[in-house]
Structure formats: C-alpha cells, structure tokens
C-alpha cells in the first residue's frame, strides 16, 4: 500500500517496527487458520467469507462515503477489488495443495521481481536470481532431477498466479490510495469482492453459522488477515520510512513457514528452509537498495 503522509500519531508500546512485525505475524497466522476452513467451505466459500466479514468490520470502522464519487474513483477501487479478490482466491487455492510456507514463498516472488524490474540495477538482478534459486528449492524442482517427488505443480501455478495478482494489488492499491482516504478504499474493495462471490459466500455463511467453531475461525481469519494488519500498517507507516517497511515485509515467507509449522504442523524440509531464506534475503537486498521516490 502507498505510505500515508506523515501525521501526528500517539506513540504505541510496540513502536512502528513492532506494529509491522505484528501485522506480518497476524497475516500469516490468519492464512494458517484459513487453511483449516478450506476442506469444509471450499476455496471460493472461504474467500467470500473472509472478504465479507472483513468488509463488514472495515466498513463499520471507516464508514466511507459513497456519494459524490467520480468515475475515476470507482474505476480505481473496482480494479483494486478485482486484483484483491483474484489474489486471495488463487492463494487459498494453492493452500489446498501446498504447505503455507511454500505457497507464501512462491507468491512473494511476484512483488519481489516487480520491485527488481522497476529498479533495473545489477544488484537487484542478482537478488532475483538468488530468489529464483530459492523458489526452485522450495518447489522441489531440483528434487525431480535427483529422482525426488516435487510439490503439487498446480499448487505452484496457483501460488505464482497469486504472486502476479499481488503485483496488480500493489499497483491498484497505490492508485486507490490517491482517490480514497485511510481504510475507505480497502473497505469498499473488500465489499465489492464479497458481493461478486456472493453465490458461494451465502452457502459458506450458512454452513459457518450452523457450526459456531467454523464461524469463529472465519471471523478470526477476517480480522487477522485483513482488519488488524491493515490498521496496524496504517498507523506504522505514519512514522516509518517506506524502505524500512518493505524490509520488514520481507519476513513474510519466514513468518508463513513458522505459522504453518505451529498451527498446521507443516514442517518444511531443510532444502525448502534454505530456499525460503534465499527469498527473504533477496527481498531484503532489493528493499534496502530502493531509492525513496518524491511524493506526487
């Protein structure tokens, strides 16, 4: 998301770095618990329920005004909604076939490659090559050459699609941030995504309401994956340079591997852990090498 302008903010016990780290952990724990919903609610049902519940919370908090919006406003937020909805659907689809840490690592290469391409430096190119080697290790492609068994190829493709959509999400998020203040654009986009997935969302909601433990998990996923991290990042970005913010987000693959191991019991192999580490380090290299852009 595009950093918000610096505003006076009350200090928090965690500080801005702590808030971002908490947001990263929250997103990945939310992803881990979302994986537990998929066998019962399905990919589209889980996505619809996550977006719908998160939208209900964010709309209640942000209370965005819909009146007087221009055609450009709606164009920006609808493209944002499309990128967000497809990204979440593809990602949850990958979780039905891949461990959480593997899916996030592959997905994360999307924005990493985009950042490197935009900067076009030799250092970032080398970082991307290191990340590519990391993905080969995580996906198990090298194990095939050695006679081993790879991870699910469709799962890899879905995670890669989620990564491509993440690039679109970043670009459309920045544009939406120019048309909507605070959480308004995110709340509206989530609401639009939930409406699009309504045919799958209503049956999923009916199933969840019939089983309180499912509804509690779905609500927790919506809060942990959307409402909580977006709010924490919005506060943190008021007092944190964008470059530092990017470096902290680079920890997401590692956080996903940890969440998958703790919540789902998905321990990664040693070669997959090495691959995840390569992707994280490559992202840190790219983010620390970024030059700040003037606000426009």
From TrEMBL:
Question: What InterPro entries is this protein classified in?
Answer: Diverse_Substrate_Transporter, EamA_dom, EmrE-like
Q: Which UniProt keywords apply?
A: Cell membrane, Membrane, Transmembrane, Transmembrane helix
Tell me where the transmembrane regions lie: 44-62, 74-92, 98-118, 125-148, 154-171, 183-202, 214-232, 244-267
- Cellular component, GO annotation: plasma membrane
* Protein's membrane topology: Multi-pass membrane protein
Q: Where in the cell is it found?
A: Cell membrane
Residue span(s) of domain EamA: 154-287
| Lineage: superkingdom | Bacteria
Q: Which family would the database say this protein is a member of?
A: Belongs to the EamA transporter family.
Identify this protein by name: Inner membrane transporter RhtA
The record lists the organism as Kytococcus aerolatus
């Amino acid at each position: 998301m595009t950093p918000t302008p610096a505003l006076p903010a009350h200090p928090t016990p965690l500080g801005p770095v702590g808030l971002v780290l908490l947001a990263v952990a929250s997103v990945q724990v939310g992803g881990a618990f979302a994986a537990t919903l998929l066998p019962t609610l399905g990919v589209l049902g889980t996505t619809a329920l996550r977006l719908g519940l998160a939208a209900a919370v964010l709309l209640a908090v942000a209370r965005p005004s819909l009146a007087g919006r221009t055609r450009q406003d709606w164009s920006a937020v609808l493209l944002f909604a499309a990128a967000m909805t497809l990204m979440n659907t593809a990602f949850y689809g990958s979780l039905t076939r891949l461990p959480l840490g593997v899916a996030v690592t592959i997905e994360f290469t999307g924005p990493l490659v985009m950042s490197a391409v935009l900067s076009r430096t030799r250092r970032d190119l080398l970082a991307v090559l290191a990340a590519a080697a990391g993905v080969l290790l995580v996906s198990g492609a090298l194990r095939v050459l050695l006679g081993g068994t790879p991870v699910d190829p469709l799962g890899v493709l879905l995670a890669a699609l989620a990564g491509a959509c993440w690039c679109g999400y970043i670009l459309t998020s920045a544009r939406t941030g120019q048309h909507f203040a605070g959480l308004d654009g995110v709340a509206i986009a989530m609401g639009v995504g939930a409406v699009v997935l309504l045919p799958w969302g209503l049956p999923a909601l009916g199933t969840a309401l019939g089983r309180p433990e499912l509804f509690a998990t779905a609500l927790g996923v919506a809060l942990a994956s959307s409402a909580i991290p977006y709010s924490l990042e919005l506060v943190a970005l008021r007092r944190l340079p964008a470059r530092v913010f990017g470096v902290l987000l680079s920890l997401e693959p590692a956080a996903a591997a940890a969440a998958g191991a703790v919540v789902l019991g998905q321990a990664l192999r040693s070669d997959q852990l090495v691959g995840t580490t390569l992707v994280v380090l490559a992202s840190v290299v790219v983010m620390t090498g970024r030059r700040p852009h003037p606000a426009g």
